[in-house]
Request: fold
Amino acid sequence: MNKFRKIIVTGASGFVSRNLRKYLSERNIDLISISRNNFKQFKNESKIVSKNYDEKNLLKKIKDSDALIHLVGIGKQSVDIDYNVVNTEFTNHIVNLCKKAKIKKIVYLSGLGVSAKTSTGYFISKYNSEKIIINSGINYTIFRPSYIVGKDDLLTKHLHKQINNGLIKIPGSGSYMIQPIHINDVVKIIFKSITEVKFKNKIIDLVGSDRISFEKYVKLFSKGTNTIIKKINLEYSYRDAITNPKSDFGIDDLNILIGNFKGNHNKLKKFTGMKFESVMRLLESGRLF
Ligand SMILES: NC(=O)c1ccc[n+]([C@@H]2O[C@H](COP(=O)([O-])OP(=O)(O)OC[C@H]3O[C@@H](n4cnc5c(N)ncnc54)[C@H](OP(=O)(O)O)[C@@H]3O)[C@@H](O)[C@H]2O)c1
Reply:
């Protein structure tokens, strides 16, 4: 018998959620997954469809769960929906639900680069949600991930789309560095964070072993496809992001990309005791997809 009674996952149809729910289901964990829209259930999974995660609908069903993994978030805002509403206020709502439902642990995905010195709207909303979680008094683990990559993450889908069109556009020089981490490692760490005491009340950078320039990443990604790679003037890229709601990169996508954020992979490796996939090696061998 599994020692967990119940684990709750929010934002069930998102990229990390889908992969995490599959991983937990395969380990026979009792799951309750919540989404705004209908979705296909895994084994051992109960489904809650709720537009606004209202207390009346949720409280009884999630009561006394072992952990809630909060994976709701947006990386692009509009006049209809902004960072403060989804990333911060919604986290506040979830934390209040956790308190009322006496949930023992909350796991949250913030972002690499979030800190008290942060100045962009996206990072500020993530920083404020971290604070809400920390001040809740509930046992927490906050992760600050770099790019989480796999078969169907946003960056991978974006690059595949450009390859299909025969042209990948790199904003600016492409010499800024990223530190991608594979989704399989991320779901393992999330599970560890709810099973191992050492993760209690920790903030942890989730970064892969390779720190690689975006240009090199794109070249490896498109190897053998005959795709043209073109550097786009950064001023043009930002102007497109500011004026065109359908631009390839949103303003904060660019801020995060150009930000050159760095984490300590060796520290993560030592702390988790895990062996990590090298995203670069996966790309080189074509096994990322
Ligand atoms: N992927 C990465 O590389 C990465 C890196 C750093 C941090 N993160 C963070 O990790 C978390 C999960 O990322 P992800 O890549 O899985 O993102 P994702 O695919 O965009 O999923 C996020 C989910 O949030 C839910 N959501 C969005 N807007 C909402 C709203 N207004 N109200 C309620 N729910 C809403 C949606 O779930 P439903 O449609 O099921 O309702 C959506 O699928 C996010 O907080 C993200 O900021 C991700």
Residues 11-17, 35-37, 71-75, 81, 86, 90, 109, 111, 145, 147-148, 153 surround NAP (CB under 6 Å). The mean pLDDT is 95. The first strand starts at residue 7 and ends at 9. The two ends are 34 Å apart (CA to CA).
